[in-house]
Design a protein that fits this description.
Elements: H1 3-9, H2 11-26, E1 58-61, E2 69-71, H3 82-88, E3 99-101, E4 104-106, E5 114-116, E6 123-130, E7 145-149, E8 153-157, E9 192-199, E10 202-203, E11 209-211, E12 214-219, E13 222-229, E14 252-253, E15 261-269
Antiparallel strand pairs: 1-15, 2-5, 3-4, 4-15, 5-14, 6-9, 6-15, 7-8, 7-14, 9-12, 10-11, 12-13
Length: 270
């Protein structure tokens, strides 16, 4: 069959397709078809990276006391200890032993880690922190602490102002896993902020990992992690690997032997 004969035989179909395309291109769709009127939660107030929390936030530390915190069980930084950590969470460990003065909580070196009494799954956590103004030590021994998401995944707190250390251990790193994209640290003694957006890991009924955890972190207004995959619970030695755990777990803060201070800690569940 010649091309001309093929075209002639299929002219009706061609005219139909052309006319249909033209009609679709020029017809006026009702604007209501692309309007989503699903109600949105009431507006919230905010004052930026420092200051008052948004009106829909859960206040974890407002500067008055540590009533939302308690002592944490031990120092878990090894994936093999996850089962022991989860078992230890079933018991109360006493009041948080850190110092509160002038609206600020400060680590009491040697007193141990603390954790929230509440557990959380997916969330936006805001926390402000500062390391001592007087420089003492170097590398990991200078203003060291940590924010433990669900008590398992550490975002490093460290004086990283002109203080070289391994990049995946500096301030803002997913400790021993992923370095921040940039070093947004301020000088020691100045207040800094983290805004941490966390998506929890999913496990099936057999304990198999279905989806890893992800985190986005803003340090002092600068994006340093963008939906970064977390490779497993934080470990100091050896590669991280996931261990099944509940969806809802507390936030932990680390006593690493330095006088690191915190204030204005709030969380929004996502």
């Amino acid at each position: 069959m010649t091309k001309i004969k093929f075209i002639l035989l299929n002219l009706p179909l061609l005219f139909f397709l052309i006319s249909t395309a033209f009609a679709q291109q020029n017809m006026e769709w009702p604007h209501e078809l692309t309007e989503d009127w699903t109600p949105v939660d009431d507006s919230v107030s905010t004052t930026g990276y420092f200051g008052q929390a948004p009106s829909d936030a859960i206040m974890l530390f407002d500067g008055s006391d540590l009533s939302n915190w308690e002592a944490a069980p031990g120092y878990f930084i090894n994936a093999e200890q996850v089962p022991e950590y989860l078992e230890a969470l079933q018991t109360h460990h006493g009041p948080a032993p850190w110092k509160v003065e002038d609206g600020v909580m400060t680590v009491v070196p040697g007193s141990g880690n603390i954790m929230t009494k509440m557990g959380f799954t997916d969330f936006h956590l805001h926390i402000e922190w500062k390391t001592p103004e007087e420089i003492d030590g170097e590398g990991q021994g200078r203003g060291n602490s940590g924010v433990f998401l669900q008590g398992l995944y550490e975002i490093q707190v460290l004086d990283s102002w002109q203080n070289p250390t391994y990049p995946n251990g500096q301030a803002g790193s997913i400790y021993k896993q992923t370095a921040p994209m940039v070093n947004a640290s301020r000088p020691p003694g100045e207040w800094q902020s983290y805004d941490i957006f966390f998506e929890a890991a999913y496990f099936d009924d057999t304990g198999k990992l279905i989806k890893p955890a992800y985190v986005t972190v803003i340090h002092n207004g600068v994006l340093i992690h963008h939906k970064q995959k977390i490779k497993g619970p934080t470990t100091f030695i050896g590669p991280p690997k996931y261990k099944p755990h509940p969806r809802k777990l507390p936030i932990g803060l680390q006593d690493h032997g330095d006088y690191v201070s915190f204030r204005n800690i709030w969380i929004r569940e996502l």
